[in-house]
Amino acid sequence: MTMDISVADIEKYDKQDMLGKLKKFPMQCEEGNSYPPPRLPDRIVKKVVFCGMGGSATAGDIINAVACENSGVPCFVNRDYTLPLYVDRETLAVIVSYSGNTEETLSVLEQAQKKGSSLMCISSNGEIEKIAGTKNIPYLKIPGGFPPRCAMGYLFFPCYKIMSMLKIVPELNMRIFNFIRRWSNTLCPESRTNIAKDIALKFHDRVPLIYSSSRLFPAIIRWKTQIAENSKSFAFANVFPEMNHNEIMSWRYPEWFTRKTIPVFIDSDKDHARIRLRFEITREIVSRVNPDIVDIKTEGESLLEEIFYLVLLGDWVSFYLAILNDSDPTEISGIDLLKRKMGGAK
Description:
This protein folds into two domains: 18-172, Glucose-6-phosphate isomerase like protein, domain 1 (Rossmann fold, 3-Layer(aba) Sandwich); 176-324, Rossmann fold, CATH 3.40.50. Helices cover 46% and strands 14% of the residues. The chain has helices at residues 7-13, 18-23, 25-34, 58-68, 103-115, 126-135, 152-165, 175-187, 195-203, 217-229, 255-260, 273-289, 303-324, 333-341; strands at 47-51, 75-78, 91-96, 118-123, 139-141, 207-213, 236-240, 261-267, 294-297. The protein has a five-stranded parallel sheet, sandwiched between helices. The protein starts with 6 loop residues before the first helix and ends in a 5-residue tail after the last helix.
């Protein structure tokens, strides 16, 4: 195919209609926000741990970032079979599994029950729904039928509403839905000026190295995982200032790899002034090795809006990159094979 992304190319490779799911994402977000929250804990919550894997954990990443700027209640994200020792009766464990059958998440649900933690479960179906019903655990059922990474509106906004009611994050500003609709319109294939297409064309046959401040970490990790699942490509992510204490020295060898990379600098006006200075200096250093740099400016008036802008942009970039890679963006045969070999785990 030519180095372009045509309607014919999308129709050829997007065999399971990822495009339709992306276009409907704004409606999904509003619908997710409309769900009544499950029963809140009947005792004081001093810690929150979000338990999930893959796309089901992304809500926790974003809420953790917002909570860090707004709350004295620490929030954590647990992606494992076991819970940290600090999880106790004063912890709210939010169990998130889109399928309801994720084996790691089922494992920590059992452990959280034994520890006496407050519990809340979110899934579309599966064992988690059954356990919640049997054990009288507060539960929210969300619509099924999506790849988990395509259900973030259903997974995130109910979680955010719960955290807002617990005074851990600010009340949601409804303007975010107007932003999401507008951003989506500018990123879909019909848009004549399309930054997502432009970035995907630059990423094609390259390895993106994505850099941002630590406050935007949930967004760049989402880029990394979406490029992996949708585009079937490698991407790497790191944050400032940590990157300046080690990875900045990586821009030498192997030379073939540095030539194959494409540095991506995601900048926000709201970042710490010293972070922005580090960006400027680091960009100058990296450009001496690889001048083909992609600069991205965040949009939005709050951290949550900035993150959602980047999430939307990254999701569309990964979709277009999949088409450029002659790949079905929905297909995950490697993950499915691993699950079968693990014994049918979901």
